[in-house]
């Protein structure tokens, strides 16, 4: 049977693309490698699914604002709210982050599944589409259009950019983003499990590469937490150059003020007791301890495992796609949506926002025989 649209990947972007195309009367099939669709959606936002962000310029949170802007400005928060309402999901906001009102990722996935079923989209699970051949033929199916929505290999995903290679598409190198960082073990001694607010910087011989305020959680081989995640996004976009992390445990104090204060108050009065022990081990006087508290160095930063990342930096080369329609410039009728493209956003709902917006875009622009 020939489909108007074959969607490869039943994640956020693939489901939204299939719903959008099927609502236009197009005959759609979704091919999903796993035994059920949307597994990653269930893991998002610690199970609460941070769907979007109220930032008026969300494209600025991405590695490629110019590429992302046409899609996100046409399918911004208002359009996304309407989409979620249309599938039966009410939303709520918490400090600029948009969640389903239920705070349950499963309600989002259930709504997507119910809508694809209602629209008669054929969903084929346990089926890997490992290449797309001109025609279009993939996974034993034939379609007038293909939307590649295969996501990334971050956490439980797989890297399926290569499926588009037979069509002449290129993939950029992939690095873990929104991920823990590996560092040398020197200054990690005794800190495993310690969780503290910091001002963090990644610094190389070229200068400061990234800065982020947030939480650091010490591990036995590096650091996690929001500050590490934020820095990993910048480092991923730079291909993880050689650098060190510098943590400021007292950003509210200048070096001079902290030096004076440490003459009266011990380091335990400023930082976690395990950190204070390492500070005392590295410096004897107030000025030395202040320097260590303001600049605690973790050398030898490298990328953590893709299996612990929330997003992938890299993917299908953007220059080969029309940023307005997400149609391939080298193979008409082939589209890409979501994280399979070389598009990655910061933490805060931006990645799911892009997945939904790009899914809508591809679903609106596919063409085909009408039922
Ligand atoms: C733990 C975690 C928490 C996160 N939390 C948030 C959050 O709260 N907010 C946010 O904005 N972002 C979050 N993200 C990122 C967000 O989940 C992803 O950016 C988003 O899901 C990408 O959607 P997608 O449709 O492109 O890919 P995916 O959701 O990964 O879907 C791709 C689908 O394609 C399937 N597939 C892959 N290759 C093939 C193939 N060859 N054939 C058939 N099927 C294939 C996969 O099995 C998968 O089901 C989180 C990510 C993780 C890992």
Feature tags:
371 residues, binds flavin-adenine dinucleotide, elongated, 10 helices, 7-stranded antiparallel β-sheet, alpha+beta, 22% strand, FAD/NAD(P)-binding domain
Model regions low in confidence, pLDDT < 50 over at least 5 residues: none
CATH class of the largest domain: Alpha Beta
Query: If helices are DSSP runs of H or I spanning 4 or more residues, what is the number of helices?
Result: 10
Report the portion of residues in β strands. Answer: 15-25%
CATH architecture of the largest domain: 3-Layer(bba) Sandwich
What CATH calls the topology of the largest domain is FAD/NAD(P)-binding domain
Small-molecule components bound: flavin-adenine dinucleotide
Structural class: alpha+beta
Helix-strand pattern, N to C?
Answer: EHEHEHHEEHEEEEEEEEHEHHHEEEEH
Gross morphology is: elongated
How many discrete structural domains?
Answer: 2
Q: Please list the strands of the largest sheet in the order they lie side by side.
A: 15-14-11-12-13-10-16
The value of Rg in angstroms is 23 Å
Descriptive account of the structure:
The protein is built from 10 helices and 18 strands. By secondary structure, the chain is α+β, with helices and mostly antiparallel strands. The chain folds into 2 domains: about 1-175 and about 310-365, FAD/NAD(P)-binding domain; about 180-305, no CATH class. A hairpin with a 2-residue loop joins strand 11 and strand 12. It starts with a strand and ends in a 6-residue tail after the last helix. The protein binds flavin-adenine dinucleotide (FAD).
